[in-house]
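Hi R.,

Here's the chain you asked about this morning:
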Amino acid sequence: MLSHKTISIKFILIVLLCMFVSGDAEVRCIESEREALLSFKNGLIDEDGILSSWKSNECCEWHGVGCSTTTSHVTTLKLSGLDNGGVLKGDVHSSLLELHHLNRLDLSHNDFGGIPIPEFIGSMKQLHHLFLKHSNFSGNIPPQLGNLTNLRSLDLSYNSLSSTSHSILGSVFESLEILDLSYNQLIGSIPDLSAFSSLTQLNLSANNFIGSIPLSISQLSELQVLDLSHNSLEGLVSASHFIKLYKLKTLDLSINSLTFDIPLDWSPPFQLESLSLGGCNAGLYFPKWIRTQRNLVSLDLSRANITDEAPWWLWSTFSSLGNLDLSDNQISGAIPNLSSTSIRYMDLRNNQFSGPIPLFSRVASDIFLSGNMLSGSISSICKTSNDKLQTLVLSNNQLSGEVPDCWENMPNLESLDLANNNFSGEIPRSFGNLDHLVVLQIRDNHLSGELPYSLRFCQELYLIDIEGNKLTGEIPTWIGELYNLRYLNFRGNKLHGIIPPQICHLTNIQALDLSINNLSSKIPDCFNNYTLLKTTDPYLSAPTYPNSTTVNKLYGYSSFQWKGKEFECKENLNLLKLIDFSSNRLTGNIPKSISSMRGLKSLNLSRNSLTGYITPDIGKLEMLNSLDLSHNQLSGKIPTSLGEVYSLGVLDLSSNNFCGKIPTSTQLQSFNASAYARNVGLCGDPLPKCLEDSLRPSTTNLGVHMNERDGNNFSFMEEVGISMAFGFIFGFWGIVGSFIVKKSWRIAFFNLLDDAANWLYVKIVVFVSKWR
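And the predicted structure, written out as tokens:
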């Protein structure tokens, strides 16, 4: 047995040895690698100070640099823009070749200005991981990358790379496990992949690949993620493609022209967690093999040409199913009680589901059921409290009854669409409890009463659409307090009274439709307050939603009248800029501030009782595409500046009191005569010529012979004849016409003639007497 003294001595020796080893293991920068890193830094543009720490002698302590604790060699260079909070620009310097032990290089999420991927990277054979994602590289993928035989991860996604897939895929990546070339411009077919036996993730989505999926993909037995979505692939997909994909967890073949030819009794070798076949032809019947995938978390069969009744097992088999998208098929059947499921996102739009709306899961966040045949009341939503729900879309169904007054149960609701149903009664006051509400669409129902005062508390409202109801009362003054409003549609109701001046406070408005009501005031002269309608810069009017999570939830902003037709705006909502006050009883002049809205694209003030003239500055509306001022009492001349609005595609000035000649311009003469009809004093192309134009002789072309003429020129003698004719007409009827109109002139004229005759008679008698 060892003595206590011996044990103590050995303990001290062990401690000293550990201290010696620890001190010896201190990481110190290797000078040659430090110089290489500084040369690399000199080729970069670092506007955000990402490399500000690259000054000290200890390069292993620099930001983004990782060194080996045993050799002190630089092994990692991680300068991803996501981690840095900024971006690097400039060039990637070849001094990185001096880092002979670098096995991980990450330059993702930077901006290298569209330069090609440097070829010298292909000489860094020690690399295990190369990440150049979203860094603005372009051109061909250098084939030299195929020399990186030790590479395990390669991510070149979200760039502008445009070479064929073959330039990098037959390459000898013997140990490659992760390959991501998604969101580029790669072309050609997908080559033989059998050599990539170690692949666990393959992502070629969002490119321009064509042809069929090679059967060699079935040999990738280690594959867990396969994403070939958003390409132009076509042909059959059979069970043979998946025969050895035992470990597959994610399969995404969506947005291709693929057709599935899989037996009804097929039993897949895998257990998927995510399946996306949206846009593919999955067959007329609901794929039965999906029932075997009990671990599904996400299922997308949208636009898959399915014409079948939803199987009962769909709603009960997948205990972990959180995302379900069956939209744009012809799937029928009833939707059962979903309160015990884990479905958070459910999109069943544009199918043939019938029956009442179901009870939703308490964890549901986004529900889309529009475009079906659902019927009955929606009062069932009052039975549960759902503080997760953000989007509820029930439009274009056959739902009826009153809109329930229990919306305090959904305090985080951001988008509500009940449009185009058969709802009746008043708008519920509990809408005012929706503090986060951004989108409210209840158009085309049978709602009555006034707008509830409680709506003024929905300060996040970005879009209100109540068109096509039976709402009464006046436009409330509190509407001007909803400062975030961009789209306001009150069209086709029974609102009366004035347009409140508070509407001038909606400085962010882009679309304002008050048409087909009983409004009877003057139009407030405050259009110069509308900031986004004054700009022609589309970037300034791009959506800035109060809550960014709502950006993708404006699925089809109802519709507006555009060029005389219903126009449904589903995308590029920020491009919609219009003012429509038509079909009311508005009076007074057109406000001069109209001309300040340089970004306005549609203006409709037709079918009112407006008087006065069109402002001469209307030509400042340089983006105007549609202008309708018809059926008013406007007068005066059409401003010449209107002919300078070259974007104008629709014009209607009919049924007014305009006069004078239509200004000559290529634009105004291109419209049909109906655009100017029923203006008694208006003339000129495309209407009949003005009188002064008809009476004014045309000049001859000096280069045309005197005796030659065409439809617009006359010879000299013809001009003399026409001039004499007009001279006689005006001379004769100018005098005779005056005598006809003025009796006293006639008497004086004939008395003068009598006196002259008497004088002449006396003179002749005297002369004759003298002569005799």
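The longest strand covers residues 232-238.

Let me know if you need anything else.
M.
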